[in-house]
Amino acid sequence: MSAVDQADETLSQRELRNESGRVLRAVAEGRTFVLTNSGVAVGKIVPLDAPAPSLPIVRPARRVGGWAALGIERKQAQQSLVDALDELREDRL
After folding, report:
1. Phi and psi (nearest 5°) for 11?
2. Whole-angstrom Cα distance, residue 77 to residue 59?
3. Residue 32 domain-assigned?
4. Closest-CA residue to 42 (of 10, 5, 6)
5. Which strands, in side-by-side order, build the sheet including 33-37?
6. Structural domains of the chain, count
7. Does 38 fall in a domain?
8. Whole-angstrom distance, CA of residue 57 vs CA of residue 60
9. I need a surface site. Which of 8, 15, 44, 91 has the fewest CB within 10 A?
10. What are the beta bridge partners of residue 36?
């Protein structure tokens, strides 16, 4: 997690383990917690009805290129696929 909102309360792994009932009641009331492990933010506990975080659009997506842009020319097969398969199957008979 790169940024922690100031409104979110941090909660250590130990606090979550020891006070899970209090934390779950607070989440049910609408509070949000940032979970930390050794002081490093590792997750977030949010109420189920909390809005999903929006992702900022830095630049619009563009489709450029693709396989057709490579300019690869298809080679014509020496024999048809059916003939090649029949030839391979002859070894089994």
Report:
1. -145, 120
2. 44
3. yes
4. 10
5. 9-12, 33-37, 40-45
6. 1
7. yes
8. 7
9. 91
10. 12, 41
d(CA 29, CA 13): 21
In this structure, is residue 16 part of a structural domain? Answer: yes
Helix (H, G, I), strand (E, B) or coil at 18: helix
In this prediction, residue 1 carries a pLDDT of 43
Q: Divide the 93 residues of the chain into consecutive groups of 10 and give the mean pLDDT of each group.
A: 64 94 93 93 90 78 76 83 89 73
Find tokens 């130990």 and name the residue: 14
Q: Tokens 């630049």: give the residue.
A: 59
Q: Supply the pLDDT for residue 6.
A: 57
Q: Is residue 75 part of a domain?
A: no
Q: Which domain holds residue 22?
A: 9-45
Structure tokens at 36: 């930390």
- Provide the 3-class DSSP secondary structure of residue 88: helix
